[in-house]
Each structure stands twice: as structure tokens, then as C-alpha cells.
Specification:
Layout (H helix, E strand, L loop, with lengths): L1 H15 L7 H4 L1 H7 L19 H12 L6 H7 L4 H12 L17 H13 L10 H4 L18 H13 L9 H8 L2 H11 L13 H7 L21 E2 L2 E2 L3 E3 L7 E3 L2
Helix pairs in contact: 4-6, 7-11, 9-10, 9-11
This protein binds heme C (HEC) (2 copies).
């Protein structure tokens, strides 16, 4: 606790006194104490990586912890007094740190092939029968995320993935409304969530781990640009896919990533 107080003092110094010449690396020492040197993640997969994640995404998470949409007391207390501009500065700082990712710690053994196949199908195609778009339709074809607001899904430890999907399932984690991830998670069975986490945690990272740009995402989701009726996913109702005889693509909007549109297969 004493340590946290000392670290908090560093942060506050940075927040209040711009005249004090403290570098961002020094000011964020409180953060890297848990999140690892340069925000490359803690040693055991519990403290998530920050380095290189999309800037808007990191900023939204800081707001989520500050405003009670995500919960981790020790960290929330640290950032509670910080002004929005400082949260943005920290998000930008960590987003610009490019630290290589380690190879996935898991391999294809230890889990039934059918589980990995289900996880792969959900990732690449979604599940139309449950009204769930493919993960790649929002997280990018390479799953490295989409700048500035959508995180990548590779390089995340299995426990962290399970923890986050479980937190959405139980309502412990929320994003800015409409919370599209909450809808994705609610529509999937627990087995499906486990399968997709098992699959993702085993995928190697591509050579270029930078988040994709929105224009690339749109080009790979051609139907999202057509003029079609969007079903409102805010209600949580199962989308209707037909209107008369014409199939209607159901587009999804995310409050935390306004530029991104997930589309049903
Ligand atoms: C006491 C340890 C601790 C400290 C100090 C700490 N964090 Fe965290 N942070 C965590 C944990 C644990 C999580 C994951 C919580 C969860 O499971 O949702 C987290 C999550 C995050 C996330 C979300 C990451 C993601 O990919 O969704 C961001 C962003 C973040 N922290 C930034 C910071 C910043 C910036 C600081 C310094 C001001 C900081 N943290 C200080 C423990 C800490
Ligand atoms: C409609 C778009 C959309 C679809 C489809 C989607 N996601 Fe997401 N996902 C998001 C957004 C936006 C966020 C960031 C939410 C926030 O700001 O907290 C996110 C965040 C996440 C996170 C948190 C990552 C972290 O570092 O904490 C996980 C895990 C995740 N999604 C998994 C999935 C999986 C698995 C699928 C497919 C079954 C999927 N998502 C489909 C939009 C989507």
C-alpha cells in the first residue's frame, strides 16, 4: 500500500505540475510497476499489456475504470483523481511503445480439435444462427485490432481472454453504450466463449502487429458499406435478417468504436 502511495505521488506530480520536468516514462512508473516495463505485460498474464494497443481503446479503458464500467480497485484508485487530458496522454504514450510480442505460450495440444475448430469458425465467420458477426469483422482480418478504438485479440493470455469475456457475461465489464461486445458475449454459450478464447490464445502474431486502419476494415467488409437497414442491437433482440424477400445485412454499432461496423455473415 505504501508503494502504491509513492507511485500515486509520481502520477499526481505529472498531472498537476507541467513545469516539473518529468518524462512520461517516469510519470507512468506506477503503471509499469504492474503492467511491466514499457507496458509489455506483467510476468504471469494477469496484468495486461498496454504497449502498442490502439490509443482510443486505451483511453476508453482508463475512462471505464474511472467511471465504474471496469473494476480493479488498486488501479482505479490511482487514476481516480487524474484529469481526462492526462488519461489521453498516457494512452498515447503506451500506444506508441512498440515492444515485440512473445510467441503464444500454448500450442494445439491439450484441447480437443473440435473446440479449436469451433473457436476458429466463430473468429472467422461468426454464427449467423445466433446473430453473431465474425470477430474479424470488427477486430480486423489479422486480429491486430483497428485504430484507433478496437483492440487486437492476439498476444493475449488465455486467462485474460476468459476473464474479460466472463466479465462481459456477468456484467462486470461494460463499454460505452451501445456495448456491442456485451451483445456478442450474451448471444454465445459459455462453451463458445471458451472455444474462441482457446483458439485465439494459440494463434501466432503476424509480422506486423500494428492495428489495421478503418479503410482497410471497410474494404474487407464490403456489405457494411451498402445502404441497408440496420437492426438496432441496443435492444438485444435477435436481429431479423430478412425484409420481404431481400436479405438485409444486420450492422452492429459500438459506442466505443463509432467507425466500426460488424456485419453478419
Ligand atoms: C496495482 C496494479 C496496477 C496498476 C498500478 C495499474 N494497473 Fe492498469 N490494470 C491492472 C489490472 C489487473 C488490469 C486488468 C483488470 C481486468 O481484468 O479487467 C488493468 C487494466 C488496465 C488497462 C486495460 C487494458 C486492456 O487491454 O483492456 C489499461 C489501459 C490500464 N490498466 C492502464 C493503466 C495505467 C495507465 C496505469 C497507471 C496510471 C495503470 N494501469 C496502473 C493493474 C494495474
Ligand atoms: C461489432 C463489432 C465487434 C465484434 C463483432 C466483436 N468485437 Fe470484440 N470488441 C469490440 C470493441 C469495440 C471492443 C472494445 C470495447 C471497449 O472499448 O471496451 C472489443 C473488445 C474485445 C475484447 C477485449 C480485449 C482486451 O484487450 O481487453 C475481447 C476479448 C473481444 N472483444 C473478443 C471478441 C471476440 C472473441 C469476438 C468474436 C466472437 C468479438 N470480440 C467480436 C467490437 C467487436
Amino acid at each position: 500500500m505504501k508503494l502504491i502511495c509513492t507511485l500515486a505521488a509520481w502520477l499526481l506530480l505529472g498531472a498537476s505540475a507541467h513545469a516539473v520536468d518529468t518524462s512520461m516514462a517516469e510519470r507512468t512508473r506506477a503503471c509499469t510497476h504492474c503492467h511491466g516495463e514499457q507496458g509489455k505485460a506483467g510476468p504471469d498474464g494477469y496484468y495486461p499489456r498496454l504497449a502498442g494497443k490502439p490509443e482510443g481503446y486505451l483511453f476508453h479503458q482508463l475512462q471505464n475504470f474511472q467511471q465504474g464500467r471496469r473494476h480493479y480497485d488498486l488501479m482505479a484508485r490511482l487514476i481516480e483523481p487524474l484529469p481526462e487530458a492526462y488519461l489521453r496522454d498516457m494512452a498515447q504514450y503506451f500506444s506508441n511503445l512498440h515492444v515485440p510480442y512473445p510467441a503464444p505460450a500454448l500450442n494445439a495440444t491439450g484441447v480437443p480439435a473440435a473446440v479449436l475448430a469451433r473457436g476458429k469458425a466463430l473468429t472467422l465467420n461468426g454464427d449467423a444462427s445466433r446473430g453473431v458477426p465474425a470477430c474479424v469483422s470488427c477486430h480486423g482480418a489479422q486480429l491486430t485490432g483497428v485504430a484507433p478504438d478496437v483492440p487486437g485479440l492476439l498476444g493475449l493470455p488465455l486467462d485474460y481472454l476468459n476473464g474479460q469475456l466472463g466479465a462481459w457475461q456477468s456484467g462486470q465489464r461494460r463499454a460505452h453504450a451501445p456495448d456491442c461486445m456485451a451483445q456478442v458475449v450474451k448471444r454465445l454459450a459459455s462453451d463458445d466463449l471458451m472455444a474462441v478464447a482457446q483458439y485465439l490464445a494459440r494463434q501466432p502474431l503476424p509480422a506486423n502487429t500494428s492495428p489495421a486502419s478503418l479503410s482497410v476494415l471497410r474494404a474487407s467488409n464490403p456489405s457494411s458499406t451498402k445502404q441497408q437497414v440496420a437492426t438496432d442491437v441496443r435492444t438485444g433482440a435477435m436481429p431479423s435478417r430478412t425484409m420481404g424477400a431481400t436479405p438485409v445485412a444486420t450492422t452492429w454499432t459500438c459506442g466505443s468504436a463509432p467507425g466500426v461496423v460488424g456485419v453478419l455473415p
